[in-house]
Design a protein that fits this description.
Strand content: 5-15%
Number of domains: 1
Mean pLDDT: 87
Low-confidence stretches: 62-66, 68-77
Order of helices and strands: EHEHHHEHEHHEH
Number of strands: 5
Largest sheet: 5 strands, parallel
Strand order of the largest sheet: 2-3-1-4-5
CATH architecture: 3-Layer(aba) Sandwich
């Protein structure tokens, strides 16, 4: 079956968003990364600023989040705001995959669409030195040391992914292809992904 959707999971600073943008431009399809925020706000009623602030946060309740409210079970309103936000995001990602070819960055999209044979799942990562240099070059220096910034962002992303999928973020078994941008430049990554996408 030919592919219609690409999901990109990425380490902070590895270039996943940039690769996603280049892929969308090359393929002539929409990119959904920050663009998802607007769609989630429209469908869920959550404020855009709330979504931006809390898109990678989980409820304080421990343990694996069950898909209550998606596949039945507990009522939607009994869930935390974070869980309600995840469900809204989950449903929109499913809708987008049904409606059009697109590139979706982050937001557990590889898990949400794991049952779709027309979806190519990609992991973008890099070593710490490469990511640190790239983050400072693109986003500038801050009061927080770069190693601490990366650890905080990675830890939040990993915790969020584990909470909502019961899987480990970055496990190669969840992806068709894993690319290290410290060793493979972004344009080559795009070429490789497009080739796989079109097969």
């Amino acid at each position: 079956m030919s592919k219609r959707v690409i999901t990109i999971s990425r380490q902070f600073g590895s270039g996943g968003h940039s690769i996603g943008k280049k892929l969308a431009e090359r393929l002539g399809v929409p990119l959904y990364d920050n663009e998802l925020v607007t769609k989630i706000a429209e469908k869920s009623g959550f404020d855009v600023s709330f979504i931006k602030e809390n898109s990678e946060k989980t409820s304080r309740a421990s343990g694996y989040f069950m898909d209550f409210g998606i596949h039945g079970g507990a009522g939607f309103t009994t869930l935390s705001l974070y869980d309600q936000l995840y469900i809204a995001q989950h449903n929109i990602i499913r809708e987008l995959a049904e409606q059009e070819s697109c590139v979706i960055v982050g937001r557990c999209a590889d898990y949400v669409l794991e049952d779709r044979e027309d979806t190519l799942h990609v992991l973008i990562y890099a070593d710490d030195d490469y990511r640190a240099e790239r983050i400072v070059r693109l986003y500038g220096e801050r009061d927080i040391p770069i190693a601490k910034r990366m650890k905080k962002k990675d830890s939040r992303r990993e915790s969020y992914y584990r909470h909502y999928t019961n899987r480990e973020w970055g496990d190669y078994k969840n992806y068709a292809v894993c690319l290290n941008t410290a060793q493979v430049d972004e344009d080559t990554c795009v070429d490789l992904i497009v080739d796989l996408f079109n097969k």
